[in-house]
Write a structure and sequence with these properties.
heterodimer, A: 5 domains, eleven-stranded mixed beta sheet, 52% helix, B: three-stranded antiparallel beta sheet, globular
């Protein structure tokens, strides 16, 4: 490993270069001072003269310094810096290549940096807290349903005995209505949380104190800690807020503290209430969902903690076999979203691979451009070689040039990445995950690892773009040197470059079909047919989960359900009486949104494959309010809401898809409770179809195909977040404040969570689709520009190299057509091959997608016959544009005069 | 290839003189130059500075080491000290030199 030692020494010398320089200076100064002193003392010279003589005797200070530098082995470094200088000069000298190649590389690096940062954020496990990598979450995992079981209040009592995890605590999302200083109620993201949270995230409060264990005891005064933003926006930064009583939900709490800005532990919370975990009568697998967290004890690893929790889990399973037989506690990093994390890892690996491929493809075209440039500089390279430059030095020079280009590209790409992350990162994640809760550990500032990753991409890019062509061009330098100016030889473009151009053109041809696909999706979603004028409706999401002690015991939660159904019905009544309101109804899922997808079996067709249906639970007023009267049969009545009446309504799609057009009224169906028709199918009850309505948005906007819909009666109190649809006479949004006011007046614990115009529910999906359209259009543009530049560069080089031959041929009377044909043959073949490859790529992808069961019959990826001529047209256009790239070099070739040609070389 | 500051013969004898001086006691650069000046009768008269690249080279080869110290009149100076392998090299070189000188003398005597 001598090269390694040498590299280490050099690196050390490079790093300690400053130190060595100052040491040299100090030694020289000391020497000169001593010599001057000696001359003054021994020869009796005046000081100035002595100094002069000492300098003379020392010899050229600068020379000695230089030879010491050389002795330190920095000669190659100064040579390298010369290469970099030359690299910068090349950037300026060839602006076209700089702009095209640099921007293409920058795009690749930009894409790479953004994906890396996003995935780093989504999968990162280190929190920006002290001991941030030792904070964990304990989750119960149901091995049978493969889902998390968050009702762990009972388990939590036992988990607290664990020794491998300290500061064990828990929180529960408990958004509540908070009445601000102005008297208005608004829901705030609150967490009922144990006091240990403030030891996990130790932050000094801005005012007052944080929560304390004593607040959690039964009978303690209700207290609340406010987040900075809530304090600032709702209480006008009142400095005397501590000690005041504020109205939260149906009760009051005393403000004991205000947290500083940015503190949003456990996720994105702004209000903290004590969590009482010692609720009497907590039963296994009952009660509200809570999240348990803690910190790994000193010297303990995640594995140690897992072993201990597994043992505790086995104990619970033995004590409560009915509820806990399949439950297994998992200790995972706090920032990890779920126990099962494999999907994310796969997607991550896949996208990193994609990024590397993208950068490689982009850089191989840049390599082509650099190769053409280097080939045009062949004479320069030959001269350098003749003057004694080794092949390695020449390769190093060309690599340095590519590295400078890649470096500039990296800076541009990283700056663009930061801009994109700050401006679109947050909305993107919020749209993609459809959640306003934004975890505090997500940081959109480029992390050092992202920067290192981007720089590594740049180096890989520089190797591809610089070393590859350099090695090729320096092959057989000696032979060419001997051939001298005989005019023969020269470098030629080989199969690799042909392949690069073909791939590039193929991508340019194939990518627009992706754009078309995404745009088609966008159009489809934008023109989604609700079946009623959705723009006249307001969609209101209500939050109706009660306090923790109301959810634990079965009787309590039943009482809670009854209370909320009364409140909601009252709110519906009050709203309907408003002057601007035409009607108000209730549903569990909004039209156009995702529904529960279940299997349905017809009694008249026993044994047949159950069909897929979307189900919605609706209020009897639903079809009246949506102005879509029942076509046949009858609508629901209030009496249908009781649990022993079993009737359903179906939509037209059900008639067409499930009944094949037959009249369904009077038929009986049974509906599975989940996506599969369960093993207990015999226990399912039969429902009678009593009416048919038109299609009213039972297929979600994300789904391209029609879905059969089945409507069930809305059972009051059974929904945790019912949706209210308000038909207004004017602008729907103008009624929104009134909805909040009325909800507060009816029941202070009824939260109005989301208020949107009904047709705007797909806004986030559209935003995502449009963002992707833009990215793919960018990618296409890069591919197009690169292929054009590549073709142009190759052709320009070929013409330049064949000037003599062309001139001779013209002189010998060759027609222009023959000359053009001979020049064009190659690029034309390449472009044609590329177009064919692109077309094949599209066809394969389209057939592949069409044959994938998941997409079958959905129309996704379905290239309709209408699209084919469009794509053929585009391919012809591509061919034409590529031909244009050949025009300039060809004209140059034809203008070659025979005399000039003979003088060339 | 950077230009060599001295011819090989001079370089060889300079290295030898430096090592020889240091074999007596650790010294700083100027001290070495004074010593070399005395024993070589003006080898460094016009080019004292060329001592330093030589010192750097010897240090890199591990024949001498250096560290900061203070002179008698309390100035900071870099002191050089011969290493074990330096002494070995010196012995070897002196042996070579003596053999060369003896050979040369034999040649001169016969002619």
């Amino acid at each position: 490993m001598s090269w390694f030692d040498a590299a280490r020494t050099r690196a050390h010398l490079f790093v300690s270069r400053g130190a060595s320089e100052s040491r040299t200076n100090e030694e020289f100064r000391f020497h000169l001072d001593m010599e001057t002193d000696r001359l003054v003392r021994d020869a009796g010279l005046p000081r100035d003269e002595a100094r002069r003589r000492a300098l003379v005797a020392f010899g050229g200070v600068q020379n000695h310094r230089e030879s010491m530098r050389d002795g330190r082995g920095l000669a190659w470094l100064s040579g390298l810096s010369l290469d970099f200088k030359l690299g910068f000069r090349m950037l300026v000298k060839y602006p076209g290549l700089t702009v095209i190649g640099g921007l293409a590389m920058a795009f690749g690096i930009w894409f790479g940096a953004v994906t890396f940062q996003m995935f780093g954020m989504l999968t990162g496990t280190k929190l920006p807290l002290p001991d941030g990598d030792r904070i964990v979450k304990i989750q119960n995992w149901d091995a049978k349903t493969l889902q998390e079981e968050d009702r762990v209040l009972y388990d939590y009592q036992l988990w607290r005995s664990a020794r491998s995890v300290t500061d064990l605590g828990a929180y529960r999302d408990a958004s509540v209505n908070l009445v601000g200083a102005d008297g208005g109620a608004q829901p705030e993201a609150a967490a009922e949380i144990t006091a240990s949270a403030f030891r996990i995230a130790p932050e000094r409060p801005l005012l007052g104190r944080v929560l304390d264990e004593s607040d959690e005891r039964a009978g303690a005064t209700p207290v609340v800690v406010l987040g900075h933003d809530v304090w600032a926006e709702r209480f006008e930064r009142d400095p005397r807020i501590v000690g005041r009583n504020v109205k939260i939900g149906t009760g009051f709490a005393t403000v004991v503290g205000v947290m500083p800005k940015g503190f949003t532990f456990p996720v994105a919370h702004e209000l903290w209430l004590p969590l009482r975990t010692d609720v009497a009568g907590a039963e296994p697998r009952r009660g509200a969902d809570i999240t348990v967290f803690g910190r790994l004890a000193n010297g303990m690893t995640l594995e140690n903690a897992q072993v201990e929790l597994t043992l505790l889990g086995k104990r619970l399973a033995a004590e409560h076999p009915t509820t806990h037989a399949q439950l297994q506690p998992h200790v995972i990093p706090y920032a990890q979203f779920s126990v099962e994390n494999d999907d994310m890892t796969q997607v991550k690996a896949l996208s990193y691979f994609f990024v590397v491929v993208l950068v490689m493809v982009v850089c191989s075209t840049v390599a082509l451009l650099l190769f053409a440039r280097a080939a045009a500089r062949e004479t320069e390279i030959l001269v350098r070689s003749a003057l004694g430059a080794s092949r390695r030095r020449i390769v190093a020079q060309l690599f340095a040039e590519a590295l400078v280009l890649a470096g500039v590209a990296a800076v541009v790409g990283l700056a663009a990445a930061q801009l994109a992350l700050t401006r679109w990162g947050k909305p993107y994640l919020m749209m993609a995950y459809d959640s306003p809760m934004f975890p505090f550990w997500f940081d959109f500032n480029l992390s050092p690892t992202t920067i290192i990753y981007a720089l590594a991409l740049a180096v890989v890019g520089a190797v591809v773009a610089g070393v590859m062509p350099a090695r090729k061009i320096t092959r057989g330098l000696g032979t060419r040197l001997r051939a001298g100016t005989a005019g023969g030889g020269g470098v030629s473009f080989g199969g690799v470059w042909t392949a690069v151009i073909v791939v590039q053109v193929a991508l340019t041809v194939a990518l627009p079909s992706v754009v078309m696909l995404v745009r088609g999706e966008t159009r489809r979603v934008a023109s989604y047919d609700f079946g009623f004028p959705a723009e006249q409706y307001l969609a209101v999401t209500l939050g109706v989960d009660g306090a923790l002690d109301e959810t634990t015991a079965p009787e309590a939660s039943a009482a809670l359900g009854a209370r909320f159904s009364t409140s909601i019905e009252a709110l519906r009544g009050r709203l309907e009486a408003e002057p601007g309101v035409a009607g108000v109804t209730l549903v569990d899922r909004l039209p156009g949104d995702h529904h529960d997808y279940r299997r349905v079996e017809l009694m008249s067709q026993p044994g047949s494959t159950p069909s897929w249906v979307a189900t919605a639970s609706i209020h009897p007023s639903y079809f009246d309010v949506l102005q879509a009267p029942v076509r046949r049969g009858r609508a629901f009545t209030t009496a249908d809401g009781s649990s022993d009446v079993r009737v359903v309504l179906v939509d037209q799609a059900f008639v067409d898809l499930v009944m094949s057009g037959r009249n369904p009224i009077g038929h009986r169906v049974r509906i599975s409770s989940s996506a599969q028709l369960d093993s207990n199918v015999a226990d399912l009850r039969w429902y009678e179809i009593v009416g048919i309505v038109k299609d009213l948005g039972m297929a979600s906007m994300a789904m391209p195909q029609r879905w059969a819909g089945v409507y069930l009666p809305f059972v009051p109190g059974s929904q945790s977040s019912p949706k209210m649809i308000v038909h207004t006479r004017g602008d729907p949004m103008s009624i929104a404040p009134r909805v909040r006011e009325l909800a507060m007046a009816v029941d202070a614990s009824l939260r109005v969570e989301q208020v949107t115009r009904l047709d705007q529910t797909a806004a986030s999906q559209l935003w995502l689709l449009r963002a992707w359209t833009r990215i793919i259009i960018g990618l296409t543009a890069v591919a197009l520009v690169l292929s054009l530049a590549g073709i142009y560069a190759v052709l320009a080089y070929i013409v330049a190299r064949r000037t003599r031959e062309i001139g001779v041929r013209v002189a010998l009377g060759a027609s222009a057509r023959r000359v053009i044909t001979s020049i064009f043959r190659r690029p034309l073949t390449q472009v044609t091959l590329g177009v064919i490859a692109g077309a094949v790529l599209i066809a394969v992808a389209a057939i592949g997608v069409a044959n994938t069961t998941q997409f079958k019959g959905t129309g996704i990826g379905g290239l309709t016959f209408g699209d084919v001529p469009l794509l053929v047209g585009y391919a012809i256009l591509m061919l034409g544009v590529c031909t244009l790239a050949c025009v300039v070099p060809t004209r140059r070739a034809l203008r070659v005069q025979p005399t000039e040609a003979l003088r060339a070389e | 290839m950077p230009p060599r500051p001295q011819t090989d013969a001079l370089r060889g004898s300079l290295d030898l003189l430096v090592l020889n001086s240091l074999s007596l006691a650790p010294m700083h650069g100027w001290g070495i130059s004074q010593r070399v000046q005395q024993v070589s009768d003006g080898l460094l008269e016009v080019n004292q500075g060329s001592l330093y690249p030589a010192l750097q080279r010897l240090e890199k080869d591990g024949l001498i080491t250096s560290e900061w110290g203070t002179t008698d009149n309390n100035r900071r100076a870099r002191y050089y000290r011969i290493t074990a392998s330096g002494r070995k090299a010196l012995g070897h070189e002196l042996e070579n030199w003596r053999r060369f000188a003896a050979g040369l003398e034999a040649v001169l005597r016969t002619s």
